[in-house]
Amino acid sequence: MSMKPIDFDRRYGELDQVVSAYLGQPADDEQDRPSRALQAYLRHTWHTRPWALPVAEQQLRAYAHNPPGRLRQRLGEFYPVPDIGLPESEIQGWLLLLADHIKQSVENGEVPRPSPLPDTHWEWHARFPELGQFLGGWFSQDMPDEFTDHEAAVRDFADSTDRTLVARLVGEIRELLALGLEEADHALAVAELGMELEPPGDHSAGSWLSTVADELSGFGAEYA
Question: What are the counts of helices (DSSP H) followed by strands (DSSP E) for the chain?
């Protein structure tokens, strides 16, 4: 029987956040240099959930020193480390190296500077979670089979989603647009966040996002 969610989070929740940051990224951490994936995790976590960093260090060390035995594996009460491109014999040392990097960052107050553009796929979704849900859920390749056009999909999102989440999405879109990115970066952003279609009509990715934010703000006024 698999673990209950609260037990999983208590033992492995932040460990999972760290390891998930490596999906699609090389685990090429060195003693004097954290990898690109770990730098993205540190940057985002320092600026959003700094209290989670000591939890991550503790969970990484606990897992490395006490890997799941056969009983826990048979019961499903363990965290299966995804394939991050390292031999199984190197996983323990890698987890301890990550814990050391996080400990050094916390103890020395080494806070990574904010970056206008997220550096990894994980960081895009960690920084813009509601936008990722919106683009990936309503604008996949299946969208033309479900809706007549982009506007209909936006309206369906507005009609079926809690107003608090709609407001968060509008805020994330405004934040992205306020970064002053080039249009190529806007196109990169929507692709990283799950959009599999081109914007409608003559819209660029940036102009379409601006229109969506205006429309969703209007829906909020309509239903207030």
Answer: 12, 0
Phi, psi angles (nearest 5°) of residue 54: -65, -30
CA distance 211 to 200: 11
Residues 27, 37: contact at Cβ < 8 Å? yes
Question: What's the pLDDT tens digit per position in 54-81?
Answer: 999 999 999 999 887 654 555 555 678 8
Give the orientation angle of helix 52-65 with respect to helix 5-20, to 10 degrees.
100
Contact 190, 181 (CB under 8 A): no
- Crossing angle between the packed helical segments 183-192 and 205-223, to the nearest 10 degrees: 60
Taking the whole predicted model, whether its pTM rises above 0.85 is answered as yes
Q: Where are the domains of the chain?
A: 5-107, 128-223
Alpha-carbon span 92 to 8, nearest angstrom: 20
